[in-house]
Amino acid sequence: MAYDVVVVGGGAAGLMAAVTAAERGLSVLLLEKMDQAGRKLRITGKGRCNLTNTNTLRDTLPHIGSDARFLRNAYGRFFNRELMDFFEGHGVPLVVERGNRVYPASGKALDIFLALIGGLEANPRVTIRKNATVKAVETFDEEGRRQATAVILERGERIPCRHVILATGGLSYPTTGSTGAGYRIAADLGHTVVEPVPSLVALRCAEKIPQELVGFQLKNVELTVQDAGKVLCRHFGEMTFCDDGLAGPIVLSTSRVITRQLHMTQEPLAATIDLKPALTREQLDKRLIADLNANGTRIFNDALRLWLPAELIPLALPQMHIEYYKRLNQITGDERRRLLSWLKGVRFTITGTHDFNEAVVTQGGVSLSEVNPKTMESRLVSGLYIVGELLDLDADTGGYNLQIAFSTGHAAGQAV
User: 7 forms bridges with which residues in the sheet?
Assistant: First the structure.
């Protein structure tokens, strides 16, 4: 039997592609290498699944790396509103939370997965095979252009088909099945693969993080990263400290901008954390002067809590070079300015990132120039479609990456 469509990979993009093709009446074979499909989808968003964001297209595109314009066609037909209607139409109520982030009302990513897999399992034209690893896509030449004709499984089985949708995911969270096999398959077919690097991931620092700080969260701070004085990115919000560096929402967003440079050059980058971004240096200096005058007899070590969380004091004291037990009325102008500079710019040296085991997404993948943005069909092999994290597309946190997966999967499912 030759299937109309073979979908390789049972993640978000693959499931959406399979559902979309099946709802059009096509015969679909979904191949999943693991013993269960949707493993990564079921743990995304700490198990809550931030599936999209209600921002407008204009506000969404700046959150996407590589060439965001590639997605205009796919988003024009299936964007956040259509995605929300899809899941609510499949029995999953949704809620919009802070930052325009959309979640299942139940707070369970499992409900998103079940809505997708349930429709496939109930469709008699859909076959799902698990523990099925694809080794290659077979092609033949027709009028000077290659055509996908079958997939070859690792154990040698040949499965004929009219179309193949590659949706094997990237390299992030490899324990869920994302081992980068799709990159090899695409490269074997002649595709250019931009080197994958971990993205939306914690950053390693040269500085030692005090044990008291590990796991501590800072809110309403601004993280800036520079290279030789040039600002590469600046993000405002929440972050946390980990045992070897920085983590949390604004750190993940920062990593998307700098991860490739870190991996290519191996050169450290300078980072600063502004603990008082709502105040200018002048405004904060006036406040410090007032606080020093009003609390003159307090010792510096104790008085730091006027301006810092207690957890930050072990980090601050050695860097400010101010005597611990000095009274505030003895603080000199130079010492006050050192305190001011520290509050407005705690310095760290970024030396690298955590690996794919902890990365939310993969940056890099199949070159967008080799894929038709309207259909996700390969420009090199007819009948081959490439979707989701396999593409050289990644985005900030906030539901943007899953929207990419669902929209590209939907585009391919409509096109086959």
Answer: 30, 165
